[in-house]
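Researcher: Before we compare anything, I want clean individual predictions. No alignment, no superposition, just each chain on its own. First chain goes here; please echo the sequence and then give the structure tokens.
Model: Echoing the first chain and its structure:
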Amino acid sequence: MHCPLPYRPRFSPFLLTLVLVGLGLGSVACGSDEAPPPVPALPEDGPPPTGGAGVPDVVAPEREEAMGMGEAYRPERDQVTDHLGVGLEAVTAEVEEGSHPDALFFQGVLPCADCAGIRTKLTLLPGPRVYVLRETYLGVAGGGDATFTILGRWGEEPGVLEAVPTAAVIRLDGEAEGPPRAYLARLDRDTLRLLDREGLWIDSDLPYELRRVEEF
């Protein structure tokens, strides 16, 4: 016995397209009435906004250091103090060019309370009475060294040093109205010895001497 096949409606491609388009429009019409959040506008100048969209994913190199993302941030460790206002480079160039043939050079490693020692280089220019003092603190906290260079005037202190009556006392001046930076006793032609802040002898076996050299 032959059974009739069930009825299957046929749709033309054109009719099917209309149905699908209608379903798409209906889903939009039935969606939420709330408008989508606006896209934050970029300011005319300055960085993009920092909340949500527009957060920059690149940190400027100078901020990267300070934030510890790159190299470890360290304070300045090579400082120059110019009490004369003439520029360290100018004085150094004159010395290197031989403009001061009578320049005196002394060096040594002085004691330090919280580092491995203070490598000290002192240049004395007898004519203009100018000095260049370069102190490098070795092995400071945090690692590495810290160097401080001072440019100023020097002179000879009147009076007699009781501990060594034959020694002349050299005074390294600082600010015009401030106290001297340091006092040194010239024990002989080739030796200077650091004194305390009052210009008095330091009674100690530690090495407070600077020895004369031909050049640095």
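Researcher: Okay. Second chain, same rules.
Model: Second chain and its structure:
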Amino acid sequence: MRDDETVDSGGTAAPYPGAGEEGGGAEGAADAGAVTGAPVGDERLERALATERDKHLRLAAEFDNFRKRTARERQEAGSRAQADLVLGLLEALDDIMRFADLDPATVDSATVVQGVGMVEKKMIKSLSGHGLEIVDPSGHPFDPAFHEAVATEPAGTEAEDHLVARVYQPGFVFRGQLLRPARVVVKQWLG
């Protein structure tokens, strides 16, 4: 018996699988093509494989383009947000530049102080419009999540224990995220 022969159920050798079966059929012919080297099923499999590889490569390229596009869009959105913030501060910067050009001999100090106060209000208004909140806890209970105690002072009554007496430096929260805690003096009941 040769290597390409099989034994059918009757014990006789058949030249290819299915040849010894009744009717042989198309299945036997397809197998015969595979055994004799005729590319009946192989071409179809190779085309299917090539198609799937092409689909895979296209999908991978599409995903890579999507990833690059979203990264670029995220960066552009961040740049636009920063530009909006800077644009809101330009008026205050213009006012500061005008103060720098003042002649100290012709302007009294009260006018300068008033002008600086106006610039401060303008900056706070602009930054508040972008989501900045000032943490000024005077008279409120001390909260270590938003306040930093830099000193203590005696409280007059037990009810004033752990209340903020003074604020050395205000804190800032930007869209729910603490940027800087308020630095405060806390009352402490010693009684």
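Researcher: What stands out in the second chain?
Model: The first strand starts at residue 6 and ends at 7. Additionally, The chain has a mean pLDDT of 82.
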